Amino acid sequence: MLELSEVRLALDDGADERRMLRALGRAAGKMLGCSPAAIEGLELRRRAVDARKRDNVHFICTVRFTAADEDALFDAVPPRFRKHLRFVADETPAFPEPVAHARGGHPVVVGAGCAGLFAALTLAHAGLEPLLVERGDGARRRTEACERFNAAGELDPESNIQFGLGGAGTFSDGKLTTGTKNPAHRLILETFVAAGAPREILWDAKPHIGSDILPTVVENIAARIRELGGEVRFRTRLVRIERAGGRVAAVVLADADGREERVATERVVLATGHSARDVFQMLADGGFALARKTFAMGVRIEHRQAAIDRALYGRAAGHPALGAASYKLVAHLAGGRSVFSFCMCPGGQVVAAASEPGGVVVNGASLYARAGRNANAALLVNVTPDDLPGDDPLAGLALQRRCERAAFDLGGGEYRAPAQLLGDFLARRPSTCPGEVEPTYPRGVAWTELDGCLPAHVAEALRAGIPQFERRIRGYSARDAVLTGVESRSSSPITVLRDKGTCQALGASGLFPCGEGAGYAGGIMSAATDGIRCAEALIASLGA
Predict the structure, then answer these.
(1) Segments of the chain assigned to CATH 3.50.50.60
(2) Which strands sit side by side in the sheet containing 40-50, from one edge to the other?
(3) Secondary structure class of 160 (helix, strand, coil)
(4) How many whole angstroms separate alpha carbon 142 and alpha carbon 114?
(5) Which CATH class for the 108-291+494-541 domain?
(6) Which run of H or of E encompasses 307?
(7) pLDDT in tens, 379-424
(8) Phi, psi (5° rounding) for residue 112?
(9) Which residue from 27, 48, 250, 413 lies 20 to 30 Å from 178 (Cα-Cα)?
(10) Which CATH number describes the domain made up of 2-87?
(11) Whole-angstrom Cα distance, residue 532 to residue 530?
């Protein structure tokens, strides 16, 4: 099989996959110096937007195909295109084959976010019949809980944007981008498609699913785990992990009514997410090995999506094949600090992401169509272990909680969020009303000064970094862009230490810390990848 990269495709040919393949066949034939008929089984593998020249926005694609005589075709390629053509193996990613049942009880997976779902799915494919427990609800009831909170401010601490089937990623933009390469990535994308995600995630350079489709996708993955012999329980909390001789012996679980059950098992995948603060406390109290790690805090920024489209795509803005424009920005400051965008949500909204009473947390989300009036993104600044007092591994968690409670107070209660116009933030004055950009946070905002809910170094770094983004996106530092606080849950402030080779917790054999909460992932794709990695490590431990 051959792979050809850097194939140009006009925007007008990008309306649908069938039309793209016809146009790509013609373009590939020209590059290879052959008839399109000589190219067999053409498959689109990647499509990215090239907007470096805004008067010539187009797609750049990678395709795979076969030919009757691939060696002859390769040898005949014009020299200027030779570097874009290579031989590739036709590899089909797959979950593991069934293995012998484990002694010491079925494995338990705690947390049904992407890390936990893919860990449980991998174990289920291996025939190990895992028990997957999740403190929140399934997708339908969880959606209802989020809607009640948005409408009436009735927070369910057990089922919300942070907790429930699919984890925090379910009610987000559903971005599937990652900065790493791993053979598992293709398997994860194909699993999502089989569960109802749009097929384009297999080739889009910036794939996303959308918070309107993701609930169905994760429900279907949970159903597949059950079909393979696994068990999935909702409204079930982890109370403690029991050890004997430095090895996991059991977990104690509690149902919605507080009734406890001891489940004997020697293998536990801990994938509870970065908002499971009670689990962090339980681990600290139990003497498990924890360490501080660098995390990030900041705000959400909102612009009109049409302005971002024009700034990035020029006259091509609004073309149906392009959709809403996205961006990724970073500014490196004197002294080593950085300001960077995270979880940019084109055509989306700022969401109410609290999971504890009396705290305000913001995040971002988009529906699949990304058709909302505003673009939003987190603007974050790193918080390092050296920024925290003392040596308590939970000090970062305490800082997050203080800032969230300060944001609640600044918002005036009822989970309104504090907000400030960018121009006022840069000028160090409070805001009193919106400009042209209307905030989308569903509980409403209180116009104020955001310094009251941000660590001082975060606020000052934002003031230094945001104006630099104007060089990349004209109009980014517009006075009436809206800042909303506080974005405090972008990453975990804690690492549950594990052995690099076996993925098992230090001092607790049989415990596999996994995903974002344990400090080993930073998004849907990396969390799912770590879930598979930990499950494979667990399977390998059966033969140890």
Answers:
(1) 108-291+494-541
(2) 40-50, 58-66, 2-9, 85-87
(3) coil
(4) 16
(5) alpha beta
(6) helix 305-313
(7) 999 999 999 999 999 999 999 999 999 999 999 999 999 999 999 9
(8) -110, 35
(9) 27
(10) 3.30.70.2700
(11) 5
Domain with CATH 3.30.70.2700 in the chain: 2-87
Dihedral, 4, 8, 13, 14 alpha carbons, nearest 10: 70
Helix (H) or strand (E) holding 58: strand 58-66
Residue 377 contacts residue 301 (beta carbons within 8 Å): yes
Q: Is the pTM of this model over 0.85?
A: yes
What φ, ψ does residue 79 adopt, rounded to 5°?
A: -55, -40
Name 201's Cβ contacts closer than 8 Å, sequence gap at least 6.
176, 189, 192, 193, 207, 208, 209
Separation of alpha carbons 483 and 439, rounded Å: 9
DSSP string, 267-278: -EEE---TT-HH
Count Cβ atoms within 10 A of the Cβ of residue 216 and give its class: 0-12 exposed, 13-18 middle, 19 or more buried.
middle
Which pLDDT tens digit goes with each residue over 68-91? Answer: 999 999 999 999 999 999 999 877
Token pair, residue 156, equals 């369910």
Q: How many CB atoms lie within 10 A of CB 10?
A: 12
pLDDT grade for 171, boundaries at 50, 70 and 90: confident
Contacting residues for 169 by C-beta, under 8 A, at least 6 apart: 113, 114, 214, 523, 524, 527
State pLDDT tens for residues 426-466. 999 999 999 999 999 999 999 999 999 999 999 999 999 99
CA distance 454 to 452: 6
The DSSP string of 168-208 is GGGGS--B---SS--THHHHHHHHHHHTT--GGGGTBSS-B
In degrees and rounded to multiples of 5, residue 243 shows phi and psi of: -125, 150
Mean pLDDT, the chain, rounded, equals 95
Q: What number of other Cβ atoms are within 10 A of residue 40's Cβ?
A: 10
Angle formed at CA 142 by CA 513 and CA 136, multiple of 5 degrees: 35
Quote the Cα angle for 393-458-115, to 5°.
50
Map tokens 């992401």 to a residue: 353
The H or E element that residue 487 is part of is: strand 482-487
Residue 164 tokens, joined: 């429930």
